[in-house]
Design goal:
By secondary structure, this protein is an alpha/beta fold. Helix content is 34%, strand content 23%. It has helices at residues 20-35, 87-98, 124-135, 142-146, 160-174, 196-206, 224-229, 240-243, 253-260, and strands spanning 3-6, 39-43, 53-54, 57-58, 63-66, 71-73, 79-82, 104-108, 113-117, 152-156, 178-183, 186-191, 214-217, 231-234, 248-249.
């Protein structure tokens, strides 16, 4: 048995090139991978509740490593493992964020989230998230979410360079307590030591799968730990800093799986 772990946004589904046929082909090859007795895992910065249908497609997987490893779930949404931030540190971070003119942020528990945004019309991703928050049954008020357990804080910035610089400053100040990952134009802040790698490792131990039988595919900075830890694969659109940690490059997840079966 082997594991193929794929990032979602920008890897399994390339938002800048919305091709339904490509998405359908990825899904078809994932099913072939599973039929051969292997596991397929989504390793994503998204929350568990955000990983549902994509258009008319039901996304196939055996596990979801969500919130960059903070939460692990079955495809039914049942949580099998969670890690949470130190509450005092999370509140310090939020005090700083509330005092600055940032684009916005979200706070995520296992299945609920709070979203605060500015400049929605200037950022299509945040506009979409704003609509999702408004209609989502999983939305929560600020006080409700901070009084519970916090799995991840995501900060939204104007571009990737700003996100990279902000992530570095967060590590300098809070690095003993949190892990920080730039992700496109956002920064994902998780409990210290938590990453997509640790989520995949948890699943591998459950099924007694050795490291050499694990493949990980991604395109952004938060994918680097899993690309380094396992048989790393990337896509042509990935930035150079990500590509140097990969052993192979394929246009799609389908192409990568086809080569492995």
């Amino acid at each position: 048995m082997k594991i193929f772990a794929s990032d979602y946004d920008g890897t399994f589904f390339k938002h800048r090139n919305r091709l339904p046929k490509e998405l359908g082909r990825n899904i078809a090859w994932v099913k072939k991978w599973q039929a051969a007795g292997n596991l397929f895992v989504f390793a994503t910065g998204r929350s568990i509740v955000a990983m549902g249908k994509e258009g008319n497609h039901v996304l196939p997987c055996d596990y979801i490593v969500g919130l960059n490893g903070s939460t692990i779930a079955l495809p039914t949404g049942e949580i099998v493992e969670s890690k949470f931030m130190y509450k005092e540190v999370a509140l310090q971070l939020l005090d700083i964020l509330n005092s600055k003119k940032i684009v916005g942020y979200s706070i995520n528990s296992q299945k609920k989230f709070y979203l605060k945004t500015r400049m929605l019309q200037a950022n299509w991703r945040l506009s979409l998230m704003g609509l999702m928050h408004f209609f989502s049954e999983h939305r929560a008020g600020y006080n409700e979410i901070i009084n519970g357990s916090i799995a991840q804080i995501a900060i939204f910035t104007i571009n990737g360079q700003v996100a990279q610089n902000l992530s570095e400053r967060i590590v300098e100040k809070f690095g003993d307590f949190v892990s920080s990952y730039p992700n496109i134009s956002s920064v994902d802040i998780c409990p210290v030591g938590v990453s997509k790698t640790t989520g995949i490792e948890y699943i591998a131990k459950l099924h007694n799968i050795s490291k050499e039988n694990i493949y990980a595919m991604g395109d952004s900075y938060n994918d680097i730990p899993m690309l380094k830890a396992y048989n790393g694969i990337t896509v042509p659109e990935a930035v150079d800093e990500v590509k140097i940690h990969a052993n192979g490059e394929y246009a799609t997840v389908a192409d990568a799986i086809k080569n492995l079966i």
